[in-house]
Specification:
Blueprint: E1 2-6, H1 13-36, H2 39-42, H3 44-58, E2 69-76, E3 80-84, E4 89-93, E5 97-104, E6 111-117, E7 120-125, E8 131-137, E9 140-147, H4 151-162, E10 174-180, E11 184-189, H5 196-200
Parallel strand pairs: 5-10
Antiparallel strand pairs: 1-2, 1-9, 2-3, 3-4, 5-8, 6-7, 8-9, 10-11
Helix pairs in contact: 1-3
Length: 202
């Protein structure tokens, strides 16, 4: 199975300061305006949205999640875990991998949590970019984040490990799975994954 690699950008000091100021400018006056019923203070919200839009233009969409998904890929197969980009091709042999851990957190659009406010339902969803594989190879710690585009792909990846992918070499490794908003996370040893967890994913 092949998945696109995710690279989260690092923000500069100026970028962090700018977004902090925008957030404070947007929400603090707006909250005060709601409490004291001052329309002028409430105008900070649409103005803040405009400045966030402008910030994204100036940073060329650097902090938009969809722009974190790369053309490079991570492929899981019987013999290797393979990283491939336009300039790099690396095959990691399962037998040489140590301290293996994989976090199969989300697929694109999976519900993270649901809340209610004023009779309105608010649903927070994952972007599918929160997945991570981490291991030691040749004495070095290797980490890759990757994107899962749908529910079936997430289930199929977990099923691969259930069916013995990487065994017997990574049986002492761990897999952490976000099941659903009710059960949340479960962690298993690779050698002892509960297959029933796959059916509970929504």
């Amino acid at each position: 199975m092949k998945f696109n690699v995710v690279i989260e950008p690092e923000s500069s000091c100026l970028e962090r300061m700018s977004i902090t100021i925008i957030v404070i400018f947007t929400f603090v006056p707006f909250a005060i305006g709601l409490v004291i019923q001052n329309l002028y203070l409430c105008l900070s919200f649409p103005l803040g949205i405009f400045f966030i839009f402008l910030f994204n233009i100036l940073t060329k969409g650097k902090f938009k999640t969809k722009n974190w998904i790369q053309d490079s890929s991570l492929e899981f197969d019987v013999k290797f875990l393979t990283y491939k980009s336009s300039s790099t091709f690396i095959k990691y042999k399962w037998e040489d991998i140590q301290d293996f851990k994989i976090k199969v957190t989300s697929y694109y659009g999976q519900v993270k949590n649901t809340s209610y406010s004023g009779g309105t339902k608010h649903t927070n969803k994952f972007q599918g970019t929160e997945n991570l594989v981490k291991f030691t190879y040749g004495g070095k710690t290797i980490k890759y984040k990757f994107h899962i585009g749908g529910k079936q792909l997430k289930k199929e990846l977990i099923q691969l490990f259930c069916d013995g992918l990487g065994r017997p070499y990574i049986t002492q490794g761990h897999i952490e799975i976000f099941i659903n908003q009710s059960i949340r996370y479960r962690t298993y040893m690779i050698s002892n994954i509960d297959r029933s967890s796959i059916d509970l994913i929504d």
